Amino acid sequence: MKPFDIVIVGGGGAGLYAAMEAMKTNPSLNIAVLSKVYPNRSHTSAAQGGANAALGNTAKDDTIEMHIFDTIKGSDYLADQDAVDVLCSEAPKIIRELENIGTPWSRLEDNTIAQRPFGGAGRPRCCYCADKTGHTILQTLYEQCLRKGVIFFNEYFALKLSVNGSRSRGLLAMNMKTGKVEAFPAKTVIFATGGYAKMYWNRSSNAAGNTGDGQAIAYRAGIPMKDMEFVQFHPTGLRKSGLLVTEGARGEGGFLINKDGERFMARYAKEKMELGPRDLVSRSIETEILEGRGFDSPAGKYIHLDLTHLGADLIKARLPQIREMSLNFEGVDPIEEPIPVRPTAHYSMGGIDTDNFGRTIMEGVYAAGECACVSVHGANRLGGNSLLDILVFGRIAGRTAAEEAGKFEPGTISEAELKDSVDDLRSRMQPSGHYERYGALREELGQTLALNVGIFREASLVKKGINDISELQDRFKKVRVFDSSDVFNTNLMQVLELQNMLDLAETVAAGALAREESRGSHTRIDFPVRDDEKWHKHTLATRINGKISAGEKPVTMGRYELQERTY
Ligand SMILES: Cc1cc2nc3c(=O)[nH]c(=O)nc-3n(C[C@H](O)[C@H](O)[C@H](O)COP(=O)(O)OP(=O)(O)OC[C@H]3O[C@@H](n4cnc5c(N)ncnc54)[C@H](O)[C@@H]3O)c2cc1C
Fold first, then answer.
1. CATH class of the domain whose range is 237-344
2. Counting beta carbons within 10 angstroms of the beta carbon of residue 97, is it exposed (0 to 12), middle (13 to 18) or buried (19 or more)?
3. Among the options 135, 234, 342, 346, which is catalytic?
4. Between 20 and 30 A from 8 (CA), which of 209, 284, 354, 419?
């Protein structure tokens, strides 16, 4: 294949914005987007609640500075303040740019873009399209990319970076329709492969494909992962499936109620109540359940999210998808009854270490979106800030790669390297002797993570998690693919995804053990206090000679000093 100027892995919001911006920056570039799912089925399409921007439409006195402060405080002071400045200052521009290219934002009476309250935010600043915000953004971006001539390789599964010393030559990927491994030589590669919270399996709100593939590929190529211990649990997942009930439901006025009929958030966040930040609300729900004030059911313990007082009209107009999901997956109509919910692994704050321009330490390799860690979310992301992150930093990474592609030689990937990749896949497809099935391992990985590296952590628990992961990695060597077909071999893809999750799980658990403090989403019951002296820093995990190696990086401070974080 002829070398590309830019190969973007991922067709979610980050990947598509990067592609659109790269085309705009230099229309003569040859740009490809690879995606294992059809782009508008990426997880971005599941985002319900909205994207933050201090437009000052709903609350006239909102400012960009308030958005910056809320984000830094929300991050428990671990976000890099220069990166947060970029995120929040670009926000109003990006919302308007999306409007100009066709995103149908919900509106106020005066026809300006409507904004709803979201957790941890001092003003209502979350812009939305009913409860289908991600879906509408993704459709808009996909149309624009097609219009601008971006070349799509849909249903291609990225396998490996081709590396030459300190730089990349491009990428190897499998065409899922034929099972063939193909080489994508490229001057630059942008990873935009989304998050890794699906490693918590059925305690996760994520799409089945959010298995951290891009991070695992980068990790195996020697690129550091940053702050991997920070996994966000969203307070309200549906009890049985972990599927998400948007924070918008509480933004619109929903209550959290325990089995004694109490609005228990009064105990934990007197002022903000249900609209406290996610880490705090999730811990509060888990505490209620652990202390016996949750409801019990064969599908597990839970508490109630009550929307009944909002009335049928509001629920139908602003939360139609939530109603549909509650009916389909819990058999509950939120107009009539409360929804059974429990915290669910939702978002990966950690990811591929990048600078504010999306660059990684490897020349010509960039990352943006949930797979990257810039870091703007630090130890806890605020609702509505991730859609914003993928748009702002997707755009920046696309522009940077377009400007820098000319600096690099076109990559060449040798036949020998291609053959190695094919052989590697083939070797998995020959069942013989004792074998393991991927399904059992995937389930066990999810269980050990939820139990030992979940909302509440402790040295002995995390050590147990690390042992379990290492045993699962050993057992993985015996996992075989039983489907021998070349055409859409989903069994093979699930095995590859499991390998990626196992590689990354080791970095999540190692970070969780190392960080002896409680900060944001990372709560150590044996170290309950934030320890700024020792731990006000980012952790790095790099794979060197097949082994994980720990490092660190300072947090970039700015106008805001460290403060106690109360709501
Ligand atoms: C249910 C839910 C609701 C959410 N609601 C909100 C919200 O209201 N507001 C907010 O700010 N955030 C929200 N978030 C978070 C936000 O939606 C995500 O963080 C964001 O959309 C991620 O975008 P992305 O472009 O980085 O990745 P994704 O949209 O996940 O896209 C990843 C892309 O990478 C591709 N890919 C992955 N692996 C491979 C591979 N091996 N080979 C080829 N392609 C690959 C996939 O095909 C896909 O196209 C929500 C998340 C969830 C799960």
1. alpha beta
2. middle
3. 234
4. 419
